[in-house]
Write a structure and sequence with these properties.
The chain is mostly beta strands and about 675 residues long. It is built from six helices and 45 strands.
Length: about 675
């Protein structure tokens, strides 16, 4: 009877083990689905199980073979494991895998898990992934309660084509952020980033800079910043703390910057500076927008443009708004006009003196001006003052000009009449200067064989703006940079100062074009007119040309002013000082105070003639010469009539003259 009982007990034990460890584990702690607060480690699966008693209170459970353990919603996989029932500490060996609620997966060859604190210590070939990025290290401490992991012996995060390495790091599972510390290095197809510390989000691929960082572009250029962020997914970046961006030709500095890789547009805020080392200019302003692809920039909030000259002789330009753009040239040096081929647009150039450029009515209507891509410079209409008038936009797209209207506009000789006529047809017009040789070439219509218009401009098909495309890079030798200044323009140079309402300058001819009541100052002389062209060479004044109502005023003393006025004025400079001027008019007039050998004033000579030549010596008027139809009167110095002392356009504007470069920054 005793033998039978012993056999029954033995088979009962075998039956329990034959049922598998799973049945044994279910008796350990009752399952509570949805709860992640359990501290007891459950045995779900294993090929073998045995217990080992260490002392009177400590017993170890040893499981081997395809082990699966569970704590709350967290699963542990390994080759073998040991569980201390008293301390609730788990040690796992071989092919360790922690599945935390199927959101974060951690792999290693060794695991020590403290169930009380829910902290895992993983070693050897550790890998943590959140389905976006993967962290690789040899030693990781991971808190399952807060989903925070730390490594201190070097680690690497791989997210697609982005690889980040550092000596130390912290992973935050709840936010998907990784905090990298010490010798941080990020390698991306576009950038190479080196820093002491930075943050990276594996979900959004946002890199956040929190200390001194160097970003090197694979396309060329470096960025130095202490704070900011860059999104590797959409290419948008923000930089603060007086960051610096350098490329092959330019340096950008500002308190805060924003940049969009797709559009190529950068926004600089707060004491912004762009320095171009190749073209020798700098632009400063409270706010600057720059386009990497077109090379253009727009500066506002008290902007100042600086042209670097020889030595310390630089030119400073201040205005309400400063703009600079680039006119691209083809390999033959011709201006490129890009056409949107999807809109079937053609550029037509007209001259004011030739009808050869005009096409018949059917051809004009076929061009359908209302379908022009207004982002491209199109439909230039040239007048006799050397400008191209560009129709930029129709307010009413379906209202196209007829052939008769175009012919009337094209043949109009007066610039104001052209603008007024085009504006009457609900358009917006820009006036752009062109070179004389380009104007002379405006004789023929568009040639279908050479694809050139009557201005000699070769046409190229442009990429559809709706499709993604990488804009072509601008090459210095195949581009003309121009500058525009609007409202309250002030210019300071050691030799020449000026004020006007608007300005245009082109690197093609190095001419400053001053508009709207411009004033030019040189030593004790003031020049005024409707428009002034100042020609420079090596950033120094070489000559000038004054259009309409020109007047030169040279201060002899506080009560006497030498004055020469006429329709146009041509002047020449020598070593930055006015040397000679020629005044033309119908007639040209002069008020001159001649001196004797002892520098005493003889009287006031008021004269007029077709042409007046003015010669300067030691910055003062030395001689005045009249040509054709001379008529004048010499008044004794004490018998000068009050109504004869000044020309009709006389106005001494010394108060408006910039006294030094620092005034332009106020």
């Amino acid at each position: 009877m005793k033998l039978i009982f012993t056999k029954v007990f033995f088979y009962l034990i075998l039956l329990l083990f034959a049922g598998g460890i799973h049945a044994f584990a279910q008796l350990t702690v009752p399952q509570q689905p949805g709860s992640d607060t359990l501290r007891t480690i459950q045995i779900i699966q294993g090929l073998s199980l045995r217990e080992k008693t260490i002392d009177s209170v400590t017993t170890l459970k040893i499981i081997a073979g395809n082990v699966i353990l569970k704590e709350g919603l967290t699963l542990f996989y390994c080759d073998s494991a040991t569980i201390n029932s008293l301390t609730n500490i788990l040690e796992a060996f071989g092919h360790v895998h922690i599945n935390q609620n199927d959101s974060i997966h951690t792999y290693a060859q060794y695991l020590k898990y403290v169930g009380k604190d829910r902290i895992a210590f993983l070693k050897k070939d550790v890998r943590l992934t959140d389905k976006k990025g993967t962290l690789y290290t040899q030693d990781l401490t991971y808190d399952l309660k807060s989903s925070v992991g730390n490594y201190t012996t070097g680690g690497k995060v791989v997210n697609g084509t982005t690889v980040l390495t550092s000596n130390e790091g912290t992973y935050y599972g709840s936010t998907k952020d990784v905090y990298f510390k010490k010798n941080v290095h990020l390698v991306d197809p576009k950038y190479d980033i080196v820093s002491d510390s930075l943050l990276y989000n594996t979900q959004s691929q946002l890199v956040t800079f929190i200390t001194a960082t160097k970003i090197k572009s694979k396309e060329g250029g470096d960025i130095y910043t202490k704070s900011g962020s860059y999104n590797l997914q959409n290419g948008k970046a923000f930089f603060g703390s007086r960051s610096v961006i350098k490329d092959s030709t330019r340096t950008y500095v500002a308190n805060d910057m924003a940049y969009d890789e797709k559009s190529g547009i950068a926004q600089l805020e707060g004491n912004a500076v762009i320095k171009d080392s190749v073209n020798s200019y700098s632009i400063l302003g409270g706010q600057i927008f720059s386009n990497k692809f077109t090379g253009a920039f727009l500066a506002s909030r008290k902007p100042v443009l600086i042209f670097k000259g020889e030595g310390k002789d630089s030119t400073f330009i201040a205005a309400d708004t400063l703009f600079s753009g680039v006119i691209k040239l083809d390999i033959h040096g011709k201006k490129i006009v890009e056409i949107d081929t999807l809109k079937h647009t053609t550029v037509i150039g007209f001259t004011d003196s030739s009808t050869a450029a005009l096409q018949n009515k059917n051809d004009v209507q076929k061009n359908n001006f209302s379908r022009i891509d207004w982002l491209k410079p199109v439909i230039p209409i040239q007048d006799d003052s050397g400008f191209v008038y560009v129709i930029e936009k129709y307010k009413q797209p379906n209202n196209a000009l007829s052939a008769e209207q175009i012919k009337e506009v094209a043949l109009t000789k007066k610039a104001d009449a052209i603008i007024e006529k085009i504006r009457s047809e609900e358009t917006i017009v820009s006036r752009l200067p062109i070179s004389a040789d380009l104007k002379a070439a405006a004789k023929k219509p568009i040639d279908s064989l050479t694809n050139k218009d009557n201005l000699g401009v070769k046409h190229f098909a442009a990429t559809d703006t709706l499709k993604k495309a990488t804009p072509s890079k601008l090459v210095k030798d195949t581009a003309i940079r121009y500058f525009e200044a609007f409202h309250h323009v002030r210019i300071f140079n050691d030799s020449v100062q000026s004020v006007c309402d608007s300005l245009f300058y082109s690197s093609e001819d190095s001419v400053f074009r001053l508009y709207q009541k411009p004033l030019l100052f040189n030593n004790k002389s003031q020049i005024a007119g409707d428009t002034i062209y100042l020609f420079t060479e090596n950033k120094k004044a070489k000559r000038m040309y004054v259009f309409n109502n020109g007047i030169i005023i040279n201060e002899a003393n506080k009560q006497m002013y030498n004055q020469m006025g006429g329709r146009t004025i041509n002047g020449y400079f020598k070593d930055g000082t006015i040397d000679y001027m020629r005044v033309k008019g119908n007639p040209a007039e002069s008020i001159f105070y001649p001196q004797d050998n002892d520098s005493a004033y003889i009287g006031m000579n008021r004269s007029k003639g077709d042409v007046i030549d003015v010669y300067f010596v030691d910055k003062a008027v030395n001689k005045v010469k009249f040509i054709n139809d001379i008529d004048g009167t010499l008044y004794p110095i004490r018998q000068r009539p009050e109504d004869q002392k000044y020309l009709k356009n006389f106005k001494w504007w010394e108060s408006r003259r910039p006294k030094n470069k620092f005034e332009l920054f106020e």
